[in-house]
Amino acid sequence: MRRPFIAGNWKMNLNRSGAVALAAAIAERSKGLEGVDLAVFPPSIYLDAVRGAVAGSILAYGAQNIYHQSNGAFTGEISTAMLVDLGCRYVILGHSERRHILGETNEEVNKKVLAALAASLVPIVCVGESLSDREVGRTGQVIRKQVAGSLANLSAEQIAHVVIAYEPVWAIGTGKVATPQQAEEVHKDLRKILTDRYNTAIAEAIRIQYGGSVKASNAAELLAQPNVDGALVGGASLKADEFLGIVAGLNHK
Ligand code: 13P
């Protein structure tokens, strides 16, 4: 059984006190929850503050990006060692906003994935097609290429530590959520890709989150899909009620 994993990507939102208050509220209200992994991804500059706010709770935290080098003359960048130093367990890599707005390539994402794994951070690797890809029936092809490139050169042992997030670009921040059937179809396809590249046991063990306009009111039916193992939540993760409402959707799984 794959352990469900609900993650909140706060993107470039909140200020220090807002981040601390939100993390503290989620940490407090998730007390006693079992059988689920929960994590939040504040802007890196607030990670240390969030660390204090969630201490002793089940709420984990991580960063929204890293640079692949471990240290040196890379102005403005943040290394895996720095995240480990702050107690991070996870890092989001290859988010569509980084791919499309900041021009990150599959090759760069791959270097970051390898760096994260080398530092024992769990990478959440995002893949997803654009609206035009979907409209011309290229979804499968695009996903296959992103997986091949972003997750290149990973041993079976390494891939076992990776979480994949399927985030269709057209569903991110748009309010246009994928239907449970659309999500399940791609998640199933991802598992097939992993089976072909590794084997069934490995493919069955890897967690695949869905992301894109997930909120409390639509989470349960998405999470009920057999191959949807959790959610990577943007906007709705900025409110404790909504985020915990999404977590509550797991009760229907
Ligand atoms: P929204 O939930 O705001 O659509 O964002 C999804 C996302 O990009 C999570 O990484």
List the helices and strands and how they pair.
Elements: E1 5-9, H1 16-29, E2 37-41, H2 47-54, E3 59-63, H3 80-85, E4 90-93, H4 96-100, H5 106-118, E5 122-127, H6 131-135, H7 139-150, H8 156-159, E6 163-166, H9 180-197, H10 200-205, E7 208-211, H11 216-223, E8 230-233, H12 240-248
Helix pairs in contact: 1-2, 1-12, 5-7, 7-9, 11-12
Bound molecules: 1,3-dihydroxyacetonephosphate (13P).
Characteristics of this structure?
TIM Barrel; globular; eight-stranded parallel beta barrel; binds 1,3-dihydroxyacetonephosphate; 12 helices; 253 residues; alpha/beta
- CATH 2nd-level architecture: Alpha-Beta Barrel
Q: What's the helix-strand series?
A: EHEHEHEHHEHHHEHHEHEH
Please name the CATH topology. TIM Barrel
| Strand segment count | 8
Query: How many DSSP helices?
Result: 12
Which whole number gives the mean pLDDT?
Answer: 97
Instruction: Estimate what percentage of residues fall within beta strands.
Output: 5-15%
Strand order of the largest sheet: 1-2-3-4-5-6-7-8
- Based on CA atoms alone, the radius of gyration comes out at 17 Å
Largest sheet: 8 strands, parallel, barrel
As residue ranges, the low-confidence spans are: none
Distance between the termini: 12 Å
Q: CATH homologous superfamily, by name?
A: Aldolase class I
Helix content bin: 40-55%
